[in-house]
Amino acid sequence: MKKSKNKLVKSRLKKSDTVKIISGNAKGTVGKILFIDRKNGRVIVEGVNLISRHTKPNQKNPQGGIIKREASINVSNVQLMCPKTNEPTRIGMEVITDETTGKKKRMRLSKKSGEILIS
After folding, report:
1. Rounded to the nearest 5°, which phi and psi values hold at 71?
2. With contact defined as beta carbons under 8 Å apart, do 108 and 117 qualify?
3. Residue 9: inside a domain, yes or no?
4. How far apart (Å, rounded) are the C-alpha atoms in residues 38 and 76?
5. What's the chain's Rg over C-alpha atoms?
6. CA-to-CA distance for 65 and 54, rounded, in angstroms?
């Protein structure tokens, strides 16, 4: 009997983050995250890992044919680009207290520049 794996992969990346591919065929390519699959630990990055999909004619696409689209890559193969230095950086967390309300908030922090990432 196969064990069910319900654990979600932890990642500090978010949709629409700019990332750099650090390994694989597209190494060195920079793109924007379109989708994060935390269940399988994969991300889809704009313009990276393109595959050709052969489609039959249907109502949406009456011509059919070959469609190029992005396939997912492992989340460990991407690294966030620091908006300040424009280089790949690790991500940390910092607890910041809001001065007006007094509430504590966890914010992402760029390890390279020390700047708080807002997105």
Report:
1. -105, 165
2. yes
3. no
4. 12
5. 18
6. 6
- Which tens digits make up the pLDDT trace of 76-99? 999 999 988 899 999 999 998 888
Instruction: Please indicate, yes or no, if residue 26 is contained in any of the structural domains.
Output: yes
Q: By C-alpha distance, which of 106, 103, 108, 84 is closest to 95?
A: 106
What CATH number is associated with residue 97? 2.30.30.30
| pTM, 2 dp | 0.81
Q: Which of 55-59, 86-90, 100-104 has the lowest mean pLDDT?
A: 100-104
Q: What is the pLDDT of residues 25-36, one digit of tens each?
A: 999 999 999 999
Tell me how far CA of residue 12 lies from CA of 25, 32, 36, 39, in angstroms: 23, 15, 11, 14
Contacts of residue 9, Cβ cutoff 8 Å, sequence gap at least 6: 38, 39, 40, 41, 75
